């Protein structure tokens, strides 16, 4: 069965610092992986997704993620954090039946000035 | 235009009541979903539905039932509300539900509080 684990429920960075949010997955089939962002009291917005094309995926707002099969990882990075990046970030994998997303528990990103 | 919309945004009700949450998508998608986000922000699928098939997460109580009047709408009916039903409910949609890499688009959520 598919699953994702997000390491670190809370990550704090300074404005301008590197953002690294960790996600490891477990899948019995080639995975489809997603990162979503949730701003306070809002819905989820897709940042980027991996669909077996390029292993380095670029998304919106300067975020990118690299699919590493050998490490079963799909970590999210951004070179320079901005105050507006403060939000909840969810990693997700498509379930084997293709009928739903399986989400990690989320990582809260705080950005300080 | 909002792609996926939900009403109401907030819902406060008493235990034992029956309530409905409405969802509409204007993306022309074939598949819609309901997710529940608990107080710890954990998101879990409740239902996925297209015009051919309803797939129910086996952990969802049968007090919850999705109803789709047409392809653009998937409403969530909840009978005999319990305290533990308090959560944020998200509706989502995707193109056809069969392509593994397709994007799911989420609504803004309905915050349900059962007193």
Account of the protein in words:
The complex is a heterodimer of chains A (113) and B (115). Chain A has no helices and eleven strands. Chain A has strands at residues 3-7, 10-14, 19-26, 33-38, 44-50, 56-58, 64-68, 73-78, 87-94, 101-103, 107-112. The radius of gyration of chain A is 13 Å and the shape is globular. Chain B is built from no helices and eleven strands. In chain B, the strands form two sheets. In chain B, strands 2, 4, 5, 6, 9, 10 and 11 form a seven-stranded mixed β-sheet that branches. In chain B, strands 1-3-8-7 form a four-stranded antiparallel β-sheet, with no helix packed on it. The N and C termini of chain B lie far apart (34 Å). The model of chain B has no long low-confidence stretch (mean pLDDT 92). Chains A and B meet through strand 4, strand 5, strand 9 and strand 10 of A and strand 5 and strand 10 of B.
**Percent in strands of chain B:** over 45%
Calculate the mean pLDDT score of chain A and round it.
94
Tell me the distance between the termini of chain B: 34 Å
Helix content of chain A: under 10%
Distance between the termini of chain A: 41 Å
């Amino acid at each position: 069965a598919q699953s994702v684990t997000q390491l670190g429920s809370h990550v704090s960075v300074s404005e301008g610092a590197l953002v690294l949010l960790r996600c490891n997955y477990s899948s019995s089939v080639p995975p489809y992986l997603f990162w979503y962002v949730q701003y306070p009291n809002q819905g989820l917005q897709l940042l980027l997704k991996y669909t077996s094309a390029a292993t380095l995926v670029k998304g919106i707002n300067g975020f990118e993620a690299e699919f590493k099969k050998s490490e079963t990882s799909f970590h999210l990075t951004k070179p320079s954090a901005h105050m507006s990046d403060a939000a909840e970030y969810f990693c997700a994998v498509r379930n084997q039946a293709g009928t739903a997303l399986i989400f990690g528990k989320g990582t809260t990103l705080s950005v300080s000035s | 235009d909002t792609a996926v919309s939900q009403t109401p945004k907030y819902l406060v009700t008493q235990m034992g009541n029956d309530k409905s949450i409405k969802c509409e998508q204007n993306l022309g998608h074939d598949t819609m979903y309901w997710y529940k986000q608990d107080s710890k922000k954990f998101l879990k699928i409740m239902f996925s539905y297209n015009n051919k098939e309803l797939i129910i997460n086996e952990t969802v109580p049968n007090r919850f039932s999705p109803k789709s009047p047409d392809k653009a709408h998937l409403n969530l009916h909840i009978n005999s509300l319990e305290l533990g039903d308090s959560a944020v409910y998200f509706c989502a949609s995707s193109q056809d539900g069969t392509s593994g890499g397709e994007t799911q688009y989420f609504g803004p959520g309905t915050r349900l509080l059962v007193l």
